[in-house]
Each structure stands twice: as C-alpha cells, then as structure tokens.
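Quick one: structure tokens for this chain, please?
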Amino acid sequence: MAVPLAFLAAVAAVVGVWELLAAVERTRVAATVRHVLAPLVRAGTEGASPTSQERRRLGVLAAVALAAAGGLLGGVTLAVLAGVAGPTIATALVTARRRRFRAALTQAAPAVARALADALGAGHSVRGALGVVATGIPGPAGHELARAARALALGAPTVEVLERLRGRANAPAWDAIVAGVLLQREAGGDLPTLLRDLAAAVETAARQDRDAIAATAQARFTARIVLVLPLGAALLGELGRPGLLAGLVANPVSASMTAFALLLQLVALVSVARLTRNVTR
C-alpha cells in the first residue's frame, strides 16, 4: 500500500510544481526576468551592446542568483564570493555572446559575397542586391543585411549604410566586401567576379586558420595542463595532510615563495595567451 501512495504523492508533487511554474509565468516576475535578460539575448542575436543601466540590471541579477546558489552549496562565505563575482560573470557572458555573433558574421562573409555576386549578375543594383540577399542568408549575417536593407528602403545613402555594416561586422572579410563595392561605384569594373574571387580568398584564409589551430592544439593543451599541475598538487597535498595550505600561508618564508610562484604562474598564463592569440581568435 505504501508504494502506490508514494507514487501518487510524487505525481501530485510534479503536477503541483508544474502548476506553480505556470502561475509564475503569468506573473510580473517572469516578465521582469525576461526584461532583465533581454540585453543578454540581444547580444547574441543582434550583437547589441547593453546600456549602462542594462549592465547594472544584469549584474544585480547574476549576483543575486549566484549568491543564492552559493549559500545553498557552501554557506555564507561562498554566497558572498559568488555574489561579488556576479557582475563580472554577467559582463563576460555578454562579451562572449557578442564575440560569437561577430564570429558568425565572419564565417558567413563568403556566402554573402557569393550571394551578392549572384544578385548583381541577375541585374540588381547594389541597393536591390542587399535586399534580395538579406532574405536568403540566415543567422547574424541575415540580421545585419536585413537591417541594412531597411535603412536603404527608408532612403539612407548607400555609402553610409555600407560603412555602418562594415563597422558592426568589424572583420577583415567584411572590410574587403564593402571596399570592393565602394571601389566599383567609383572606378567601375566587374563587381560580381571580384566578389566571387574575394569569397574564395576568404575561405582559403579561414581554412588556413583552422589548420593552424589544429596544428597547435596539442601544444596549447599541454601548456594548460602544465599550468594547472601546481594547483592540483596543492589540492592533493591539502587532502592528504589537512592544514598544509594554512601552514604555508602562516610561515612568512613559504608564503612569500608561494606568492612568487603564483606570480610566475600568472606570467606564464599571460604569455601562453599572447602567443596563441593570433591563432585562436
């Protein structure tokens, strides 16, 4: 008899939680959370940078959420540390999503160049070609092209729209596309062929970048392992002999040597990051 009752209780609990979530979604709490998280979503879908007020809201939300999680897991100390790290983590998330947006723009540059070449070859002008291509390119590139097409439809100058598009993309491939279009406007020439050649060159450069990342992957992974080994050894020593780390800090000689070792670790970490920056960016 106890097993069926326990099963019915579990089913009732699931139904109750489901109804509670549905009720919360209908309240202003869910709307407020969506409003606060909207800048984070736009950073990944539109590449938009949050305003100062939106950054403060994201920081407060991250601090409260992390402090609550830290309090449940490790008490007051972990809650305070997690809460303090909340604004930094929120800023890092926004930056990462904007970086992913720009990376998607860069990856789509060859497809955009070829689509523009096809539209121009079919008889469209540059203004008309941007509108045609915007309907067929998905993702961040499609969003930026649609934005440019709307500006052109409202009467904005072509040069201004293209320069704004180039600035938002902030990538050499898009710089070359815009430069080619503007050069053709001034000097003439076979723009479709130029765009197709440009697309092939960008794809070749991207393939070379991927080859470089693959060639250096083992070395970068080994460097990170070597950097983490001292921390792992310290944790194992603390597990094998509790109080070891406290003793190191209490002794002035060992504390100074530990601080110097951490400084060298930081220098090594920065050096590895700078050496691999041009490969992994």
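Residues 63 and 85 are 7 Å apart (CA to CA).
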